[in-house]
């Protein structure tokens, strides 16, 4: 099956349609992650960048700019910016979460040390800002610096919210908007901005990225309880073991009786976990239909993403169709 | 003695002359370190910001802008930017160095945790970029994003250079330019840029900040071996115990015989330290005149700073005189 075949995965079709641009992004990333003075920087970064990852965020920027008819070269800078910000947050997240695996490989904090992960992350943040300054668009700088602040804020909020049973769906959504959706929505919005799209269409691109990012993170949190290690690169129940209160558990806690509440309090809030607790947690999620409800929420956000995209008149309807399909694809992982 | 008395400390005279501007900077810092969503952010930041510190970097920005006749308000944003970048690097440094004390108080990573220090540092970096975007000066954004990259690069370089006896004065200077002087020189340069100073004068302001920052860091490294805990807030020999190769030791290593080299290799490279090793290290520094030579280097850089500043015609000669005196003051701590 060829990549432009309609049955190919939307993400792969998008990557194929934008392959020339994406090659330019990869070349720029490689050039800018270098450091003459500190050879450890490209070592650490290459470890992560070469591991692949889906390059979803840069594709969103390239796709948004192109579908709005952009003919310049700055979308490449912005796509690299977005990927650098993402890579920097991964490096810092792995320190924060004390992770040992990322994209199927040992994490940088394990291979080198926490110090390298913190400082190389800082370097990539700074490199990201240099790249966006080169676009000479103050509006783009405004959007991306706001996104960077929202990301960090979401991550800090998560520190206190994740192990607190009082965390409700509203707080969860704030965390998700911060840690994931802020960069998705900035990625699509800046594509529209550099293409000189009208305000209403820029707003729709932003809304698309926001809803897509939320759907993406909800699916991620859902797969943690029902995915297979092979598909996700994570083990079932990692979030439970790491005492991270995500949407499935929030829904189960909301319907918990006193005994169930005590269970969640012991395992998540106090972190006292024994053999069999994960199975019991899964049984409670099932009893209250928490996984099905979480899945419905993800599908709802995917629909919002598609609706927003449908409002955008595009110079390249095929590209737009791929972005619409991408929203379905993101939730198809749990269909 | 009043603060405008010539015998008052130059740093205090500068702070007094710029007290109104500095008040505006403090107000802006307090407003921007807030976070409605994540209350831990202002807690962590306030712990560090309220501890005082000398506010040297924002004073450099305010002083440079004012001495070049700047009459607008953006110097306040830039001074807050520079302080935020500095505070963010302190938070990350304390994680990297596993420090327990900063400015005479327990560090944030000790009071909260490493996670909070990493993520709140990221938040402050992002806030710094937001602040500088508000100046709407692409040149300022270029200077400060380059400085941020140079700082991170210097810190990463230090990771590998600090415990390697092959590190010579050239590499040391690269590290110092990165970790300290890059922010000093950016702080003074952007003051000149927003004031619309001619290119030659902007270059001189940059050269002043660069030389001042180098002098400042060399003095810091020297005080680690000859200061008193009361004056520095650090204990004599901290760098030795943390196996950080700084200028005094680099000079002693360069003159070491085989036996002395083995001593440095054991204590710094291998980190095998026993009782009495610090005393032996101090004796070797003394034997080779390493502390006196380091002091001479610091004085040399202070002179370069003064020479650069003397080339700048100023709308406010008194302010310029304070900045000249500041260079003497920085090295007076070891006179």
From TrEMBL, chains A, B:
- Per the UniProt entry, the Enzyme Commission number(s) are 2.5.1.90
Catalysed reaction(s) here are: 5 isopentenyl diphosphate + (2E,6E)-farnesyl diphosphate = all-trans-octaprenyl diphosphate + 5 diphosphate
Q: Which UniProt keywords are listed?
A: Magnesium, Metal-binding, Transferase
Question: Which domain of life, per UniProt?
Answer: Bacteria
Instruction: Return the PROSITE patterns for the record.
Output: POLYPRENYL_SYNTHASE_1, POLYPRENYL_SYNTHASE_2
What Gene3D superfamilies does the record point to? Farnesyl Diphosphate Synthase
Q: Which GO terms describe its molecular function?
A: all-trans-octaprenyl-diphosphate synthase activity; metal ion binding
Its BP terms in the Gene Ontology are: isoprenoid biosynthetic process
CC cofactor: Mg(2+)
- Identify the enzyme class: transferase
Q: What job does the chain carry out?
A: Supplies octaprenyl diphosphate, the precursor for the side chain of the isoprenoid quinones ubiquinone and menaquinone.
By sequence similarity, the record places it as follows:
Belongs to the FPP/GGPP synthase family.
- The protein's name is Octaprenyl diphosphate synthase
């Amino acid at each position: 099956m060829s990549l432009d075949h309609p049955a190919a995965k939307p993400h792969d079709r998008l990557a194929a349609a934008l392959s020339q641009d994406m090659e330019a992004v990869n070349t720029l990333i490689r050039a800018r992650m270098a450091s003459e003075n500190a050879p450890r920087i490209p070592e650490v970064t290459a470890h992560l960048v070469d591991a692949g990852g889906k390059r979803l965020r840069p594709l969103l920027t390239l796709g948004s700019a192109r579908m709005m008819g952009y003919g310049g070269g700055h979308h490449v800078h912005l796509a690299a910016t977005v990927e650098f910000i993402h890579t920097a947050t991964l490096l810092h997240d792995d320190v924060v979460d004390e992770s040992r695996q990322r994209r199927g490989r040992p994490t940088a904090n394990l291979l080198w040390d926490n110090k390298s992960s913190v400082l190389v992350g800082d370097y990539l943040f700074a490199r990201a800002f240099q790249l966006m300054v080169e676009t000479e668009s103050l509006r783009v700088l405004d959007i991306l610096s706001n996104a960077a602040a929202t990301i960090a804020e979401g991550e800090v909020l998560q520190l206190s919210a994740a192990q607190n049973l009082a965390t409700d769906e509203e707080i969860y959504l704030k965390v998700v908007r911060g840690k994931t959706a802020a960069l998705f929505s900035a990625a699509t919005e800046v594509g529209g901005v550099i293409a000189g799209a009208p305000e209403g269409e820029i707003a729709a691109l932003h809304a698309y990225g926001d809803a897509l990012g939320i759907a993406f993170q909800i699916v991620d949190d859902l797969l943690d309880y029902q995915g297979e290690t092979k598909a996700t690169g994570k083990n079932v129940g990692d979030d439970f073991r790491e005492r991270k209160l995500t949407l499935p558990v929030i829904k189960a806690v909301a319907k918990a009786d006193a005994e169930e509440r005590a269970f969640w309090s012991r395992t998540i809030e106090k972190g006292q976990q024994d053999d069999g607790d994960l199975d019991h947690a899964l049984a409670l999620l099932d009893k209250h239909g928490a996984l099905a409800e979480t899945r419905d929420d993800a599908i709802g956000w995917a629909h919002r993403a598609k609706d927003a995209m449908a409002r955008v008149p595009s110079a390249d309807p095929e590209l737009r169709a791929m972005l619409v399909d991408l929203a379905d694809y993101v939730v198809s992982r749990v269909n």
